[in-house]
Structures are given as C-alpha cells and as structure tokens.
Amino acid sequence: MDKKISVKVCLGTTCFVMGSANLQELIETVPAKYGDKVDVSGVPCLGLCSIDWEFSKAPYVKVDDEVIKEATVEKVLKAIDEKLK
Amino acid sequence: MFIDIDCSQMKKYNQNAFGDYFVSKRYPDETRLVAVLSDGLGSGIKANILSCMTATMLLQFISNDQIPIRQAAEIVMNSLPVCKVRHISYSTFSAIDCDDDGNAKIVEEGNPEFIWMRNGEVLEPHYEIIQSKTFKNRRMKVYRIKLKLGDRLIFCSDGVTQAGLGGGRLKLGLRREGLIVLLKDKISENPEVSSSELANYVVNQARNIETDRKPKDDISACVLYFREPRKSLIFTGPPYHQHKDKDYAELFKNFDGKKAICGGTTANLISRELNIPIQMDTTISVGKLPACSYMDGVDLVTEGILTLTKTSEYLENGTSDIDNAAGKLVKFLLDSDEINFMVGAKLNQAHYDPALPIEIEIRKNIIKKMAQVLQDKYFKKVNVQYM
Predict the structure, then answer these.
(1) B264 and chain A: CB distance < 8 Å anywhere?
(2) What does the alpha-carbon distance between residue B5 and residue B379 come to, in Å, rounded to a whole number?
(3) What is the side-by-side strand order in the sheet with B20-27?
(4) Which single residue of A10, A31, B7, B367 has CA 20 to 30 Å from B196?
C-alpha cells in the first residue's frame, strides 16, 4: 500500500449549504482512524453542482476518482474502507 | 490623490446626543468630496438638531451643484436664527469642497480655524472675510487653497480648542497652539497615520485634559489626508463568455494592488489560467462560512456567495474583528481606498434549486449592495465591472 487515498470535500457554496459544512469533521476523524493512509482536505469547488444542476446531488466528495453524491460521513468512510480492502 | 477623510466625536459629559454634526459625501465620478462640520448651540438634543439641520442643509446646497459653496455658506450665515436666551447664532460651521487634484474651497463661520499641515509644518493660508449683511457679529472666512500629496487638513469644534478650559494645567484650554503640538507629535511618531487614527487621537487627548476626563462640551475632530490611494481588486464569479477567462485572468494578474478572489469556481479558474496551485486551509471552518484558501500572489481567497453576503451584513452593521472568511474580507476592504470589483455574470443553476437556503442571493445584487455601503458609510471609491 504505497499510494495514499485522497479525499476531497467540496466546500463550494452549493455543497456547503447542502451539508458539507458537517462533512468537515472528516478532516479530523479520518486521520485519527486511518493514520497517514488517507489524505483529507477541503477544496474550493469540485465544479460538479453546475454540471448536473437539474438533479443536484450536493454535497459532493471525491474519494480518489470516485464521486460520492449526497455525501455523508458514513458514505465517505464506507468508500474509504472499500478502497483499502 | 486619494482623500482619506474621517471624523471622531465625543458627547458632552452627561448628554445622550451629539451636539456636533458631521456629514460628507463623495462623488466618485467627479472625483470630488464635500464635507461639513457643524456645532450646534448648547448641548444634547437641542444642539444635535441645530447642527444636524445646518450641516445637512449646507451639504444639500453644495452637493446639488446649484449653489457654489461660498454663496451657500453666505445664505446659511445670513439666515441662521439667533438664540433668544443667549443672543448668538444657532450654530457654527466649517465646510469644504475639494477634489482629487487638491483644489479645495473652504468656508468657516464661528468654528475654530482649520489647520493645514505639510511635512509636519503648519501653513497659513490666505483668506477673504465676508461680513453678514443681516447680522453684524457674523462673518465668515473663505479660503481657496491648493493641496499637495501628503497634506492634511484638520477641522475641529471648539470642544477641542477649549478642552481643559479653567482647569488646573491649561487655564485657557488647549487652544490652537496646543492642538498643533498634539498633531505634530502624532505625525512625527507616525508620518502615515490614517485620518481615523489621527481624529481619534485628537478627541481622546482633548478628553484627557478635561477635569476628571469629563468633556464640558461636545468634542469633534475631522481629518482629511491627501495621499496615494491603496488599491484593491476583488474578482468574483466566472465570466459569462468562457473564452474570455484567460483575458480576465491576465487582467487580474497584472493588477497593481491587493487582490482577493471570492468564489470556489472563480479560484479554480484563476488557478487553471495562471497555473497557481490552490491550498485549502486545513482548519475546520468557523461558524457558517467555508474556510479561506491560499494562492501565491493572491492576498485572500474565499468562498463566494455566502461569504459575500455575510461581509455585506458585517459592513452594514459595522461589525469588525470577526475571525472568519467574511471578517477577513471586511478587513481587506476597509484597508483599501479604491476598491475594484470584477464580477462574473455567469450563473450557477444549482444555486436556484429551491432546496437551497433562501440566503443564496444573486451575485450582482450583493455586490451592488456592498458597493453602496462601502461608498456611503466608509467613503470608499468603488468601481464595479461586469464580465
């Protein structure tokens, strides 16, 4: 296991009001759980809300290249677990 | 030149209203500034009404450009009623009409003479006296002066020059000489002192020499400082035509002054076009706003709509020193004299989702509101460009 898993939490306007404000706890809980295998950071905007705005599924989180729609802490942790398997 | 203007005031001890009144108005298109300081007879509410009336009427006369400052002042001087009890006029005033090139017209009636400072020395300008046709004891002084970069004009009410009157150390009060000493001290200590700091300093010093630090009269000091403007640029929202992204990014890059980006997509755009990586603040966002990010060569990077809305609210309420992105943006704006907004007109459809909180406003509206407050309340020069 060489490569770190990268988790990017979108902190753009849409995502932020749709719940990514609460996802920020990942920035603290993930390193505590997985150590340095996973790298979590906020990003100004993933640009996803403007693409499929008609079916907006904000907040978005990216775990490596996988986009998690309507992200919750549980969904993100599950995706990380999958990757680590 | 930029005219940094501010006024600091203190009420007379035991009064609940200011007896001096200060108003000013800036005309960004004409690069002109008009300001009036008036001192109402007596103190408290009565003085407040008198000075407020005098100052606002005079400002109205001058600013509508219908009556030149000299005639306007003459009209007011000739028509101010006389107090039945004290047999003196209802209020006194100083008014200034000046522009960015340093041309200034000043009239004074009854207020202490203004002080003109250049390189730490006081200049004595020539003036003309106009005698009132209706009242023998009223006359006003009219000045026409040319200011240079770095000059300061200090106006004050007699509460400053008479501070400490009859007290222990200064039997005749601070007077003009004492005020000049205070000003010279402060300016030699900090030659670039801002108008608000200098005005506050004068008012506090005047209060300090009053017996028991209780002002016996309303104290006001107004400072005008002619200096190089501190310019700033706020880039917010992606341009309507995507093919112009590069041009606007270049404009942003080449701007001479402080720069801020408000908006996640906007930050990505600049990052992409100018090849500057974005680093997000790792701390968890405080309150209801996303944290700032960092980019080389950019002074402030924040989220867009939410931060701008909050900033506008802080500016309107006069809230400062808040430790979040909007608080930082407030400081950024207030530390500038000339603020340029580059506002992208592209809409993000996702923001119109009814599921989103109602606070999500249209960018253009927030900027319009913010520009208004910055101009009217903080006397900033604001330019807004849509792209």
Answers:
(1) yes
(2) 8
(3) B20-27, B32-40, B91-99, B103-109, B139-146, B127-131
(4) B367
Nearest residue, CB atoms, A24 vs list B263, B285, B301: B285
User: Which residues of chain B lie closer than 8 angstroms to A27, CB-CB?
Assistant: 282, 284
Q: Say if the Cβ atoms of B282 and A49 lie within 8 Å.
A: no
Instruction: Report the complex ipTM.
Output: 0.81
Delineate the domains of chain B, giving CATH numbers in brackets: 2-227 (3.60.40.10), 231-386 (no CATH)
Q: What is the pLDDT of residues B192-207, one digit of tens each?
A: 888 988 999 999 999 9
> Is the pLDDT at A1 greater than 60, yes or no?
no
Contact state of A14 with B303 under an 8 Å Cβ cutoff: no
Q: Inspect the interface and report whether the beta carbons of B304 and A13 lie closer than 8 Å.
A: yes
Interface contact B242, partner A, CB < 8 A? no
Q: Tens digit of pLDDT for each residue in B239-267?
A: 998 888 999 999 999 999 999 999 999 99
Phi and psi at B121, nearest 5°, equal -115, 155
Residues from chain B contacting residue A56 (CB–CB below 8 Å): 350, 353, 355
Say whether the peptide bond before residue A59 is cis (omega within 30 degrees of 0): yes
What is the pTM (predicted TM-score) of this model? 0.68
Candidates A13, A24, A49; nearest CB to B284? A24
Domains present along chain A, CATH in parentheses: 5-84 (3.40.30.10)
Task: Give the pair of three-digit tokens for residue B296.
Answer: 């080389």
Alpha carbon of residue B274 to chain centroid? 35
The residue among B105, B100, B95 whose CA lies nearest residue B24 is B95
Is B348–A41 a contact, with Cβ atoms under 8 angstroms apart?
A: no
Model confidence over B73-90: pLDDT tens digits? 988 888 888 877 777 778
Using CA of residue B264, residue B270, residue B323, residue B285, what is the dihedral sign?
positive
Mean pLDDT on B58-82: 86
Tell me how crowded residue B355 is: count the other CB atoms within 10 A of its CB.
10
